[in-house]
Write a structure and sequence with these properties.
The structure holds two protein chains of two kinds. By secondary structure, chain A is an alpha+beta fold. Chain A is built from eleven helices and ten strands. In chain A, the strands form three sheets. Chain A has a four-stranded mixed β-sheet. In chain A, strands 2-3-7-6 form a four-stranded antiparallel β-sheet, with no helix packed on it. Chain A has a two-stranded antiparallel sheet with strand order 9-10. The mean pLDDT of chain A is 95. In chain B, a hairpin with a 2-residue loop joins strand 9 and strand 10. The chains are: A alpha+beta, B alpha+beta. Chains A and B meet through helix 8, helix 9 and helix 11 of A and helix 5, helix 9, helix 10, helix 12 and helix 14 of B. Bound molecules: flavin-adenine dinucleotide. Flavin-adenine dinucleotide (FAD) binds next to strand 1, strand 3, helix 13 and helix 14 of chain B.
């Protein structure tokens, strides 16, 4: 029994963290936030060189063939650093492909492994509908029609993996960049470090890559775990920033961290956050190794960590006082990330309801 | 990370099953009719009779019980292995067989003796304590010394071969049933407050000890006041060095935090709460179908799981010889808050039946629910009140300044 990280995993995490510290300080985050598409190809390429893009791509397609826990450790760091970019959608699409037919894998995965090809997923519809079995987008004769909301980085992706229905039920289709009848409208999100668009399909040519809902469900679970890890990293960063601040800010003749009211709020946050790390570790591990627990744990950990992130950010801002509420101060970067993490792929109560259903209660 | 029940573990499970079958018969189960499955979920009473003792002995010999305790003192002497521990608990529970005793003696004194006791003290007390033959109470708190424990004043003066002890302890759980007390006594009045304390083992039958029950808010009286009037305690009853009692007691307090910081209590209550929600009809519908209840249950389950996995993580760390850092410091506050929150939800699920006192026909789980709900308040305070835990986390975990101290 070993409930811990391997040396390789610790090393991987340290490496990515050093990269993020050097290449992605908040000044760069802000630059990317202010750009048109929220994508910094040089930053992404740097991450890809560390193996981030191809982490879970099988070795026969040129990837590292690692597991979700490895990838989630990276998501944790990216959340910590508030790193902008297409990591999440790309990772979900990669998982969907890995559960799809071999032609699609041969076509796309080698490019994904090097970071040259960027993919994303178009799963969500309307408000709050993420269930692959309930989508209204239709596929007939190799053409898609329908509207997808909240598609990450649609504008800069080489292909979209789209959930839709045909005569046989739910499935996944691949749509290439520039396909006819596809219209992308960028949405303004609260979190400018991760962009989303609405995508219309109107007789858009598409290739069916998977039948049934398994591939979409696996991709969703990856997304849920990665969001949980991002939330964990972000919440830890907020706690660190606030602790540092409490050690320097003076009022009433002493640093505010010496006041019990402040100390105790920070201790409470640590108390909730620290054990929760093991929850997403487990969920990530379960995804690859404990089949009957993976879906439920993905749901539970996403709901739990993103709620915690929200609470942590709230106290972090409060404990900073006025400065915490300014644009110049960086806290709101994480505040916005927390809003994204909580909402994307479905809110907490939705996933808790799913978890209750999955338990057979 | 590797959490697989490999072939070895599956074999281990089979061995444990067989062992239990061989050592714990239907007759043994029947001899002490246990509560229903669901009531068990909220806590069941351990046995210490002959059969249970024989079973625990055999289990320790096989390495199935008290796995961290050396064989020489009646333990199982095994490397830490959370998966094996989990398998053991699952199988013992399923067979309604005795589990490890978790009271103050086994859980707090034993680790202290193992770390600081003399060979004789270990021989004399460890095994008999693990089996429940010698029962202990903890004499730390005093009327004027609670959170600020080091300001305690009960004094011990060496006269010939004996310490003569005078003073008063308070909140002493189980003092009336206990055979012995492990106590902190001020033996060096001239030393600074932390350096003047010794850790003494005191026979509760010694002349001059007067135990008076205190009534608790749940109506019971598990705790007591203990008055010590010229109580003569043999000189060699000190654990560790004279005057070093504060530092010796640290391993007790650490063990206490680990005991209270264990996720099992929250888990048992949680399983009980789910069962309760499944069988309770509120306004004509099973409570489990109420979306708010489902949401709250799954929310709390995430926290229970986090606590359990955090325990795994800490065990993995300690097997590597690391201390758990922040993750270790938070466990007591985390799990005691959690146990409280879970039992509060169970009260909520019980709807208006929750207002019935234990003993009433329709009181949920024969009143056990109310009892555990109230018990968790004690859990939060005992071993360091929540604010004290927050200080520990803030100061030792996050590096914030210490509270002003005089
Ligand atoms: C059911 C039960 C069983 C117990 N069993 C035993 C036993 O067997 N043996 C034994 O020795 N003791 C036992 N205790 C005693 C327990 O350890 C003490 O009650 C506990 O340490 C708190 O001390 P106190 O009651 O004197 O509270 P106080 O120390 O007076 O504290 C009162 C309040 O002030 C707060 N406070 C105090 N100092 C600070 C500070 N610096 N910063 C912030 N807040 C502060 C505390 O958090 C608390 O909320 C038991 C207690 C209970 C409830």
């Amino acid at each position: 029994m070993d409930f811990g990280l391997s040396e390789e995993q610790t090393l991987l995490q340290d490496t990515v963290k050093r990269f993020a510290q050097a290449e992605c300080p908040s000044t760069r985050v802000r630059q990317v936030m202010e750009s048109d598409d929220g994508h910094d190809p040089a930053l992404w390429q740097g991450l890809a060189e560390l193996g981030v893009a191809g982490m879970t791509v099988p070795t026969e397609h040129g990837g590292a063939g690692l597991e979700l826990l490895d990838l989630a450790l990276i998501a944790d760091v990216l959340g910590w650093a508030a790193t902008p970019g297409p990591f999440l959608g790309n990772a979900m699409a990669t998982t969907a492909l890995c559960a799809s037919d071999s032609d699609a894998q041969n076509q796309w995965l080698p490019g994904v492994a090097t970071g040259e090809t960027l993919l994303t997923v178009a799963f969500g519809e309307g408000i709050g509908e993420w269930d692959a079995g309930a989508v209204e987008t239709k596929a007939t004769g190799g053409k898609l029609s329908g509207v997808k909301s909240l598609v990450p980085y649609a504008g800069v992706s080489d292909a979209l993996i789209v959930s839709a229905m045909d005569g046989d039920g739910p499935g996944l289709w691949a749509v290439e960049r520039g396909a006819s009848g596809m219209q992308i409208s960028a949405l303004t999100g609260n979190d400018q470090t991760r962009r989303v668009s609405r995508v219309h399909f109107d007789g858009t040519p598409a290739t069916k890559i998977a039948a049934g809902r398994t591939a979409a469900d696996r991709a969703r679970d990856v997304g849920l775990v990665l969001l949980a890890a991002d939330a964990s990293g972000g919440a830890h960063r907020c706690l660190e920033m606030t602790t540092d601040y409490a050690l320097t800010r003076e009022q009433f003749g002493q640093i505010i961290g010496a006041f019990q009211g402040v100390k105790h709020q920070l201790a409470n946050l640590a108390c909730d956050l620290e054990p929760a790390v093991s929850l997403w570790w487990y969920a990530a591990h379960a995804f690859d190794h404990i089949n009957d627990k993976s879906e439920r744990h993905a749901a539970l950990s996403k709901a739990h960590l993103t709620d915690l992130y929200d609470t942590t950010v709230r106290y972090a801002i409060e404990l900073h006082g006025g400065i915490g509420f300014t644009w110049e101060y960086d806290l709101h970067l994480w505040f916005r990330r927390a809003m994204f993490d909580r909402a994307f792929l479905g809110e907490s109560s939705y996933h808790r309801r799913r978890a209750a259903d999955l338990a057979g209660w | 990370m590797n959490l697989k029940y490999s072939k070895d573990y599956q074999r281990f499970r089979e061995e444990v099953r067989q062992f239990i079958k061989d050592h714990w018969t239907e007759e043994d189960v029947a001899a002490n009719p246990q509560l229903s499955e669901m009531a068990q979920g909220l806590g069941s009473s351990p046995r210490t009779d002959e059969r249970a003792t024989a079973f625990r002995r055999a289990a320790a010999e096989r390495g199935y019980m008290y796995r961290h305790v050396p064989r020489a003192y009646g333990g199982g002497e095994q490397a830490p292995d959370p998966l094996k521990a989990t398998i053991l608990v699952e199988e013992l529970k399923a067979a309604k067989a005795p589990v490890e005793l978790m009271s103050q003696g086994p859980a707090m004194l034993v680790p202290t003796l193992l770390a600081h006791g003399t060979e004789e003290q270990k021989k004399q007390y460890v095994e008999s304590t693990l089996l429940g033959h010698v029962r202990w109470c903890q004499g730390y708190s005093e009327p004027g010394a609670g959170s600020d424990l080091a300001s305690l004043r009960t004094s011990g003066v060496l006269e010939g071969d004996h310490w003569v002890v005078n003073g008063q302890k308070i909140w002493t759980s189980n003092a009336r049933e206990a055979d012995m007390m492990f106590a902190l006594i001020r033996t060096e009045p001239d030393e600074p407050k932390h350096d003047g304390i010794s850790y003494l083992l005191i026979d509760m039958k010694t002349q001059g000890i007067d135990v008076r029950p205190l009534r608790q808010m749940d109506g019971d009286a598990h705790f007591n006041e203990v008055f010590l009037d010229n109580v003569r305690v043999p000189r060699d009853s000190v654990v560790g060095e004279r005057g070093q009692g504060w530092y010796v007691s640290r391993s007790t307090l650490k063990a206490e935090r680990a005991l209270i910081g264990n996720a099992s209590m929250a888990r048992r209550t949680f399983d009980g709460a789910v069962a309760l929600a499944q069988m309770t009809q509120v306004r004509g519908r099973p409570a489990i179908e109420d979306p708010v209840i489902r949401d709250r249950l799954t929310d709390l389950e995430s926290r229970v799981l986090a606590a359990e996995y955090n325990g795994f993580r800490l065990l993995t760390e300690s097997a590597k010889g690391h201390d758990g850092g922040l993750a270790g410091l938070v466990t007591k506050l985390h799990t005691s808050t959690l146990a409280h929150d879970v039992s509060k939800l169970a009260m909520n699920i019980s709807s208006d039946a929750a207002m019935l006192a234990p003993g009433e026909e329709h009181a949920p789980f024969a009143g056990m629910l109310v009892q555990s709900y109230i018990m968790y308040y004690a859990l939060a305070i005992g071993g360091g009140a929540p604010n004290i835990q927050r200080n520990v986390i803030g100061e030792r975990g996050l590096g914030l300044p210490r509270d002003p101290r005089r």
